[in-house]
Write a structure and sequence with these properties.
The chain is mostly beta strands and 281 residues long. The protein is 11% helix and 47% strand. The chain has 3 domains: 111 residues, Immunoglobulin-like, CATH 2.60.40; 80 residues, no CATH class; 56 residues, no CATH class. The chain has a 5-stranded mixed sheet, with no helix packed on it. It has a 4-stranded mixed sheet with strand order 2-4-7-6, with no helix packed on it. It is elongated and about 140 Å long. It starts with a strand and ends with a strand.
Length: 281
Amino acid sequence: MRLGGKLPAIVAAAFGLLLVGTNVQGSVVEAKNAQVTASTATQRVKLGLNKSVVIDLPSDAYDILVANPAVADAVTRTARRIYLFGKSVGETNIFVFGPNGEQIVSLDLAVERDVAGLEDYIRRFLPTSAIKVELLNDNVVLTGTVDTPLDAKRAVDLATIFVSGGEATTGQYSQTAAGGSAQSGVDIDNPDQERRTSKIVNLLQIIGDDQVTLKVTVAEVSRSVMKQLGVNMVGSGGSNGISYGALSDNFTGLGKQLSNSGFQIGSSALQAYVNAMEQSG
């Protein structure tokens, strides 16, 4: 974006860092103005997502060039003060030129999430853990130690909720106004369809001892098998009105009949029962 001459005014909350010298990398801190020095060297600035920073320039600015307006926007209220807005996670360059086309300052701007809130929640809900949160290309990296695997899972869950909430706010549309006039304001539009999906990288170490209780039951099984094969003899008959009968048990004394056969001689009959038994116990 190129802005020249009298640039639109804007009222914004200052949120940023103090830059001293060249090639100094700042961090997202409490609200304060950022002063830059007149230099052709690139100066690094870190800005929180959906946050703003006020930049005080060493001389009057006539042109401002933002390499990627989708990541950040720059507007001015005076010739020596510009406002930077972090619109989406990413990096971009901002160049400020003077009245004769000379470069006043070059900024290397990185817009990322402010993870201080996530660290506060982790300390609150997991007080015995020592977890450090870092950002790597808008992905959350969890390092440190926890007591149990459950604590590690809870830390990942908190990080997931944190980045999901951040993604839900990247689709904002707002308008800033100068002197209370909406017609002279600047539109800042962040479409929802351009949201990013962040990943959680779990590098936590578990320092607690994992205890596993096993209940073992030992049973002794004794099995004996006895097989039996025997024959029962049954005889019966009658003579002159007198009946008689005889029964012979099988030779082993155990079992019951499996099948039988018989034959008859005169008025006498002889039957045989074949026993076969298998016993297990």
